[in-house]
Amino acid sequence: MSANQRKKRLNKKDAYKYMTRLGWNPTYQKEEDVFPFLEMEGLKIHDWEAWEDPFRMTMDSYWKLQAEKDKKLYSIIDAFAQNNAQKNISDARYVNALKLFLTGVTPLEYKVVQGFSHAARAFKGEGASIACQMQAIDELRHFQTQVHTMSHYNKYFDGFHDYRTMHDRVWYLSVPKSFGDDASTSGPFEYLTAISFSFEFVLTSLLFVPFMSGAAYNGDMATVTFGFSAQSDESRHMTLGLSAIKFMLEQDADNVPIVQKWMDKWLWRGYRMLGLVAMMMDYMLPNSPTSWAEAVELYIEQNCMALYKDLEKYGITVPEKLINTIVAEKSHLSHQVWNIFYNHTNAANIHIWMPDENKMNWLSEKYPDTFDKYYRPMFERYIALQEKGERYYSETLPLICQTCQIPLGFTDIEGGNPHVYTHKTSEYNGEIFHTCSDGCKEIFDAQPEKYVQSWLPPHQIFQGNCGGATIPEVLKWYKIEHGVDNMDYIGSPDEAMWNKLKNK
Amino acid sequence: MSASIALLCLQATEDGRAITEAIREDNEGVVITNKPAMIQIERAERITVKASTVSEHLGRDWDPEELQLVLISLGGQVDETDDEFIVYWNN
Asked: Could you give the number of structural domains in chain A?
């Protein structure tokens, strides 16, 4: 059967040209007053026309396609709710992965609506501005569809109720929050490198694909669907990231060292934040489709390398030191982060549990060199203590990294000392600042005037800015209900609700 | 060094499967893997999706921009026109 003759219309190249090149050169005002952020980062741009969106997306197509995506998504969300599909998930422990997503990732989607709106206004080229505007609207869609999808779980489970306040206040959520704040307080070119390139192109597969395939393996149809719907936009965002990087590199050879510095910084910032995803993949999913180590092998060791190879001709080099650390840590990271959460779950908005025998065996199989040697004995000790009624919760506040804001709980794997915590310090204006790694220390040392302003949760608690100095007072300020939203899964109201749903 | 691999991940839907069949026809040596809910398509250097072939498989007029409705992820640079959608590496 042959396709029908198309209606006569402009071809894509002409349509893109006529519908996006709508700018003008200002004459009433000086250019530097209209575009005040263009030169502050030291980048040299000679020809904005060289920026072209490879998708050649115009607004008429954009609305049509996005409306179609939303229509598909909402019909599935409705079906999910109508069929009480929360009963079909593998186990209620899984729901904690969604709480982590809603409080950690979803508010970042909203943050980047602001970031891309700002970048769209800051750039002088229409091609760049329109791509950024579309991405800003995409991110608003992601934010809304994620909240709508997960609101169904809020009817049955705890911890979903005030994700905005939690994102702003809960100690470990300052890790994603500070990442977003750090990016959006950069200039527009660094912002694009941070979010469009390092995050969307290099790391997004490590965030979305594990969450979505995790959802698929644990019976959560609604989350799979919003994930795929968002991913269809991500392909455009990834392409924007790569176009942005190439544009900056091609415009002037002097741009190369500046862009390289940003690429290295944001690879490391993103990687540190994804420690939360590592823990989610290996511990929070009752059924894990892949381990964190396997994801690093596919997305960092293979895909990330192909990308850097593509940029070599511009003079960009692989940040080998950072990559070596990521690869060295891949068999330790998730276990160490889960350990941190086990010790501090009294102050968290998610439930924690120790892996059962099946899960321990899966971890032994996926981490043959590390799990049985270092982490199984530690976790078995925790279980033994728990059985004696001596479940340990930390009552003190951890020292956290001035850059990534993760507690200093990582150890010196590369140096061959997996039992020794890594701890770096820098001095600035007569004060000592603490970081967790060489990667974070280098970021701090490059811009100390920025990072000394970081809002660090333990410091803020001690300064009396978080409702009080005791855990109950701080929890109240977090809007976390003690004994309901926090502590172990076993014995929680979530567990009781799950047993009721499953008629146990 | 070996050539970089161009990648497309499509949703395993009716449209996604028809697009995959068109890709199989037009791209010699393409490797297609079925994953849960997803079709992974890999080929050295370049994958070309031709609108005319997809239209024949679907039995209706198909515009390359509709690819975005089923696209989950891609690896490579993009070039989209009225007639085709190409993902490629320039290594």
From this structure: 1
